[in-house]
Amino acid sequence: MCVFADGSYSDFVKDDDTRIRDFYSDLTESVSMDSKGNLYYLVLEYETNADHTDGRPLGDVIYTYNPSTNEAKNLTLPIEGQWYKKIQVSADGEWCFVEVQRPNGSGYVNYLRAISVANPESYVNIVYDESVIDWVYD
Fold first, then answer.
1. Does residue 37 come out as left (phi exceeding 0), alpha (psi in the -120 to 50 range) or beta?
2. Distance of alpha carbon 87 from alpha carbon 70, whole angstroms
3. H/E/C letters for each residue in 65-108?
């Protein structure tokens, strides 16, 4: 929820009719803001059936909220099997950095994903590879 100076408010995290969403309770790691006041937040989305009951998790999505236009929209789409754990946005709002976790054999691997806000489909994954003792980009 965003409360404006005049006392009005916007419930930008409300569900719509197409997705059921879970919002993370740890706001220190699941919410970030750029210097223009735009809010970026992580949401776990589920598929829904005809009666809009919980389905299987689709994955995490990054949403943006612009308080000037009162508009919330998704920046990314869910990628099955990949979960966003932490988010940080550059001060200029051009880059979004998220910690990603995905299954890897019997465990999980965590890595950093740099996402261009202007072109979110074009992202870079940065992983520390112990076999080569170096950072790997893909």
1. left
2. 21
3. EECCCCEEEECCCCCCCCEEEEEEECCCCCEEEEEEEEEECCEE
pLDDT digits (tens, 9 = 90+) for 73-117: 889 988 888 888 889 999 999 999 999 988 888 888 888 999 999
Task: Look up residue 7 and give its DSSP letter.
Answer: S
- Judged by DSSP in three states, 11 sits in coil
First to last CA, the chain: 36
What's the rounded Cα separation, in Å, for the pair 123 and 116? 6
User: What is the tens place of the pLDDT at every residue in 18-35?
Assistant: 444 555 555 567 889 899
Using the CB atoms, write b or e for 37-71: b if 16+ within 10 Å: ebbbbbbbbbebeeeeeeeebbbbbbbbbebeeee
Produce one character per residue of 77-107: b if its CB has 16 or more CB atoms within 10 Å, e if not: ebeeebbbebbebeeebebbbbebbeeeeee
